[in-house]
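RETRY 2/3 - previous attempt timed out on the joint model. Re-submitting the same 1186-residue input unchanged.
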Amino acid sequence: MQEYNAPIEDILFVLKNVKSEVQNENDEYSDPDLMKQIFEEAGKFASNVLAPLNSIGDKKGITLENGLVRMPPGFKDAYKQYIEGGWSSVAGSKKYGGQEMPWNIVGGLNEIWHAANMSFSLNMLLTQGAIEVIEAYGTEEQKQKYLPKMISGEWSGTMNLTEPQAGSDLALLKSKAVPNDDNYKLYGNKIYITHGDQDMNENIVHLVLARLPDAPEGSKGISLFISPKNIVNEEGKTLEKNDVRVVSIEHKLGTNASPTCVLAYGDNEGANAELIGEKHGGLKAMFTMMNNARLNVGIQGVSIAERAFQQAFNFSMSRQQGNSIDGSKDGTVAIIDHPDVQRMLMDMKSRIEAMRALSLFTANELDLSKNALSSEDKIKAQENLDLLTPIVKAWCTDQGVLIASTGVQVHGGMGFIEETGAAQHYRDARILPIYEGTNGIQALDLLRRKLTLDNGNVFKRFLCDMRKDAKECLETKEAKLVEIGKKVIFAIDLLENTSDELLNMWKNSKRNAASGATPFLDMCGNIFGAWIMAKSAIKAHNLLKNNQEDKFLNDKIETAYFYVNTILEMSLSLKNVVINTHKNINSIFNMQG
Amino acid sequence: MQEYNAPIEDILFVLKNVKSEVQNENDEYSDPDLMKQIFEEAGKFASNVLAPLNSIGDKKGITLENGLVRMPPGFKDAYKQYIEGGWSSVAGSKKYGGQEMPWNIVGGLNEIWHAANMSFSLNMLLTQGAIEVIEAYGTEEQKQKYLPKMISGEWSGTMNLTEPQAGSDLALLKSKAVPNDDNYKLYGNKIYITHGDQDMNENIVHLVLARLPDAPEGSKGISLFISPKNIVNEEGKTLEKNDVRVVSIEHKLGTNASPTCVLAYGDNEGANAELIGEKHGGLKAMFTMMNNARLNVGIQGVSIAERAFQQAFNFSMSRQQGNSIDGSKDGTVAIIDHPDVQRMLMDMKSRIEAMRALSLFTANELDLSKNALSSEDKIKAQENLDLLTPIVKAWCTDQGVLIASTGVQVHGGMGFIEETGAAQHYRDARILPIYEGTNGIQALDLLRRKLTLDNGNVFKRFLCDMRKDAKECLETKEAKLVEIGKKVIFAIDLLENTSDELLNMWKNSKRNAASGATPFLDMCGNIFGAWIMAKSAIKAHNLLKNNQEDKFLNDKIETAYFYVNTILEMSLSLKNVVINTHKNINSIFNMQG
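RETRY 2/3 succeeded.
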């Protein structure tokens, strides 16, 4: 049995069926056979090469030798195959050697890579982000110099934001950039640099936030720089090592094969650096990249959940323990026969399908925001993307932690033994609600920036679109679909009402409203998940007209039905939690600011 | 700042105020000053000796050298101090050198030990259980031989239940016991033996489940044996090593300083063993012990949650990041100023106080079941204990995992770095919902054995008692207390109604009802937690008449108010989840039994 099988059928179902019905200029990859072929190839590479290295990477970890990071055994070779398969270039623009696949296909591929091996795939995630920044803010010279090798996968990219005193609050950062000839010299220490050093790439292109000498204080005085590990000349050739040093690597709870580095810039003569984008415009450039990274981190939540689910499901089919509760089977049964194990598995499965559909729907909006045929559609897609990004990031990653924990539980005692593998997912998952903006920050972003977009009309319009899908369920007159439709509409109305109350609170007391931000995001996630499951169910219902027996399509409706009867139910209580959380949180703590 | 401060004020408040008002024969330790003194001494030992070793134990772990397990540095010495302080003997009977403290005091102490150092304290938890089994089932000779040294702490005890093919399903176990002279020889392999070997005790008294040659198959053919690491003669003197060997120690997700051993009995001549209790009556004896152990594991949930809370709270007071959301403070603030951080801390705090009160209330019922003055009170206490045990075990441990995870989240990026310490609690906590009967098994126990006690009347009577406390809140006519009382009564009514529906389901389909068992237990836990917070609030309210300014008592009411407005709210949705979960869980999986 393979450790991991890419859930290609569900990914293709979502990509084909569960998206906005908007014309997309980027239709080169819309042929179903081509899509299927891409995902089958990816699935093979993930199952055969990346997935078996996941546990090896966890156990062996990385090493720092003579100032250089070594990846675990097998990683370097896997990376070579990753490049040879053309996987590094799927998202990059054609002008610099990329394949320009639409973002929902890239999102589906990312789900597979991170499920197979999150530590390995973080390299690619960071590189994709760096490419995006250079595409958006680089000069043509910078693009020519860096993009072809980054898109080909020869070079990787990193993001250098955090400093010890500046984590969520980047305004506090201190690294300095000093003009030097036509360029700059960088000085400062950066922490938590994912894949900050490793031996899979010939060069690493660091994007670094720092302050110019004339910079104003706070967040408006931060600029962005390119400072590669090895200096690159005008022709794009790698020269000597730059003045950037790996100080240490962190010993972490999880993702042990992903080097998290402390980097020191300018210990000696200063690190060579080029300004990218406008002076003091660094945060803006970084946030462009971060939005896409947030969507991808949400997808990592789907990945770890799917991996944990497959592991638990396989275990439950083979582990023999106990008797059938209703005597329906003789003797000892596989634990999947026990209702509580079925409950856990079904809970995992239905959450995962909702998360996958919601995150790939969002990835498609990202694509439409760039490639929709009409400019109105582009604007609408951008608004949807802005609204959905914090929800996908926070909700899918919180679910990822929850599901990985359930995965351990299904294993009983063996779940706590590292050899089994379930525990690794529980450890790896825990970073997801933290990085690329903690989930608390996502919730605040949803409340203060997204819910208020166009005076709340973007949110209301999105809820209207959701209602349309739910109403389609009612029109089928099939009992289960009608129940799904009714429950989803009820929940949407409750959510709209909650958002009105929350915005009113915000006007009267930012502090009170902010204390309800996380339960509100959670409520949005659960209800958006219910809507996208309803949307999936109606598509499945329509497709079933061609083939009544199709197990996948029948299961989709059943899974949606389970979701609205359990997970959606829990979201209804969240309204009062959103409104009530502020009560007494201030009075208890003697705060010291 | 100390890493851990025992929450003595809250423990004493609960012990004195939040319990059944029933006369207890065992009142030797009821003097408030004496209780305070006991807990203050325990708190010092926990803070100064045990807590600092917690992270050392995690990092250094244990080693297996020449077939013997070595504990991490410092543990042996700490254990010596633990004995010298008299802590090993608090629960044992006086006849064999114990102090016979009531179980709620023992429970409060156990909370402190496990919060300070769970890996260390597991030794004591298992020994307490073994002592209990020998007290209940041993012959006078066995008691004289083993109890004095176990109660003094010179010897420890272990439970040997699990075999590779027999985890939750002990009916499948295969270890053999063969008569030999007046005693037995043991043969077989046991796994997951907590503190199965270590170098803190002179001898280890293993309690081992095995089958006699004439034993019937299944769970009715299992007997219990005493088989010490070193053979003990009639006078209680330690002789040569017994034929029990440490095969290996497990590499686990957490509790790294607690040796989890694979033990082989009878590799050579067979391990010397004595039968304890009746032939084929081993499971019954084991379950007596297990009930108490389950209560103690629930308390471990409180411990890990309290430790995680203290760590997160201290971090949030010192970490400077971001600005005050409403501009109420100038410049960068400690993150405890952020409403979402306050929400997390308050959520942790209010859950913990409910868990602590519920688990110590239950420990007091254990004591009353043995020491209440009237036999009716004893019976009622035993019924309450039976009902509450699975709830305390499962609910408090699920909460423990959740709260440890929130603790990581409060730390942001630093939470994922092992050095910080928050991650250890997240790892350590994960075993709690698994061992001593998985939480799924607890939920099934609640449904099929406890909810049905006396035709459901035990449960209904308990709900009636809960309503009385809630009504007391109404009578105060203080707005907050009235709101608490009303919400709790509403929830109790809903819970009663849910239990009726669930029992009806059980009559029609065990399978359907069993799929709702876990959400039902969760609902019970949340609502029992709300009741015990209401009970705490009313006591605080009454005590405030003497001192209106008392911060602790005022906070208690505020914390209860927060609980009913957030956590209790979430439990209301659980009714439909209990009833609906069975829908479609069977149809999806092609089960193979």
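Chain B has a mean pLDDT of 96. Closing ticket.
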